Amino acid sequence: MFTFDFRAHTMQETHDHIVHALRKQGVASVGPGDDLPGDLTCVYRAENGNMCAFGHVLPDEAYDPDMEGDSINPILRRLGCSDTISVEYRTYLREMQMAHDNCMPFPEPAKAGVNESRSLEAFEREAAKLARMYGLVHPPL
Questions:
Q1: What local confidence, expressed as pLDDT, does residue 2 receive?
Q2: Per DSSP, which regions of the chain are E strands?
């Protein structure tokens, strides 16, 4: 059972949780893509239990598989919290999600070339940059 809920935590607590969870996971949360057979795409919750950045702070009772493919803003509206959390927090969540989608390595066997610019180190750099931008402390390794 997954119980962390971004709505009940500060941005710093959320940042710490996402970073620690993705460090432990080590790879992106991926599922079948829509384009070609064998293509993978980032998903909030993968069949193997992996989660993306936002998936790690979305409690089980709020998750719906129909959310897959949606960006964060429609999900926040659907959860009724797009007006109850700050614009800064919403933007931070969206940018951490992009850090996951663009930096975390895909699990093996990944399609040739997909991990050339992806690594846990690339995610760490991006997450640390976002922490600085939002006045947060990035957790040490």
A1: 55
A2: 30-32, 40-42
Query: Is the model's pLDDT at 115 over the cut of 90?
Result: no
Partnered with residue 45 across adjacent β-strands are: 51
Query: For residues 27 and 109, what is the distance between their CA atoms, to the nearest angstrom?
Result: 12
Q: Residue 2 burial (CB < 10 Å; 0-12/13-18/19+)?
A: middle
User: Rounded distance, CA 79 to CA 82, Å?
Assistant: 8
| 8 Å CB contact between 64 and 80 | no
Domain residue extents for the chain: 6-133
Give the tokens for residue 109: 């066997």
Which tokens hold the place of 125?
């750099």
Write down the pLDDT at residue 66.
93
- DSSP output for 97-111: HHHHHHHSPPPSSPP
